[in-house]
Amino acid sequence: MALDDRTKALLSTFLLLWMKNNELICNQTYVDSSSDSESDFSTDYSDDEVASVEDLSDTEEKLFEEYRSLQEQHKKMEQKARLAQELEAAQNAEIKIETETETNHQLLEEKVVQEGEGGGQGEEDAANASVLQKRSMLLDEEDYDEPLESETKKRRMELL
Predict the structure, then answer these.
(1) How many Å apart are CA 78 and CA 89, to the nearest integer?
(2) Is residue 131 part of a domain?
(3) Exposure string (b/e) for 8-34, b if CB count within 10 Å is 16 or more?
């Protein structure tokens, strides 16, 4: 996953603040457990140091939330790109099917014309060819157009 410059900057700032926060925590001096002291940690921190740690924690949380938001936006953009590719593929398939259908109809018409010119049962052959052509057109419409149109409409709606 490629990160843009803003995300990299936020991530590096987040890591620096996290390391600084951990450094301040690690620098705390622990009281020896064998001593009679009631507290586990020494409390010799100045108000500025405590405020600094609190500010770092708040900044860390804000940066983390912004980083999550950027991740979600990136996922949404990838999903939209994938849907756009699928829509383009469906449209290309629809165009291909339409082209094939037109070619089939032209070939059928040419066959009807050739059989009609050949003599014999010209009128009967032409009538049969006409019926076959109508059946072919109905089957083409039922098999290809409706599912692709509805699928195309669904994909367009998803992109919006």
Answers:
(1) 17
(2) yes
(3) eebeeebeebbeebeeeeeeeeeeeee
35 within domain boundaries: no
Amino acid at 96: K
Which CA distances in Å does 137 have to 98, 100, 101, 140?
11, 12, 8, 5
Nearest to 18 by CA among 56, 58, 70: 56
**How confident is the model over 33-84, as pLDDT tens digits?**
444 444 445 556 666 776 777 777 788 888 888 889 999 999 999 999 999 9
Give the three-class secondary structure for 120: coil
Determine how many CB atoms are found less than 10 A away from the CB of residue 112. Answer: 19
Structure tokens given for 153: 């409409």
Number of domain units in the chain: 1
pTM of this prediction? Answer: 0.39
Domain assignment present for residue 36? The answer is no
pLDDT, tens digit, for every residue of 69-124? 999 999 999 999 999 999 999 999 999 998 998 888 888 888 877 776 655 555 66
Measure the CA–CA gap between 151 and 90, rounded to whole angstroms: 8
